[in-house]
Design brief:
6 strands; four-stranded antiparallel beta sheet; alpha+beta; two-stranded antiparallel ribbon; elongated
Length: 117
């Protein structure tokens, strides 16, 4: 197995950077959940977070008789040709995974910058 540097994980998935020849490849993030893997740039990860927020804002579970037990919603990904069919619970887990990943990346970049001074 190739070496990785884990960024964030939850019960649903994991996010990490690949390592090559002892160097961490930070230009993209490997995001893996369910049977799906995305290799995204930071910009694409931010777009994905925005798409997740838009989908969450469109949910109206409080007034729905199914109360978060409905079948599936379409979640747009940063890849124009790919949408994911996810349940509300899966959507919340993906949201946590993506937001946690972005937070950890930003925190590491900030700490690396501060420690250089």
């Amino acid at each position: 197995m190739k070496e990785i540097e884990q960024i964030y994980f939850n019960e649903f998935g994991v996010a990490f950077h690949w390592k090559k020849e002892q160097k961490v490849l930070k230009s993209k993030v490997q995001l893996v959940f369910k049977e799906t893997g995305f290799y995204l740039s930071k910009e694409e990860l931010t777009i994905f977070a925005g798409n997740i927020d838009l989908t969450c804002n469109e949910l109206s579970c409080n007034t729905c008789e199914f109360q978060r037990k409905c079948h599936k919603f379409l979640l747009k990904t940063p890849l124009q040709q790919i949408d994911l069919a996810v349940s509300v619970d899966e959507l919340m887990q993906i949201k946590d995974l993506v937001e946690g990943t972005i937070f950890q990346i930003q925190l590491k970049e900030y700490l690396d910058e501060v420690c250089q001074n």
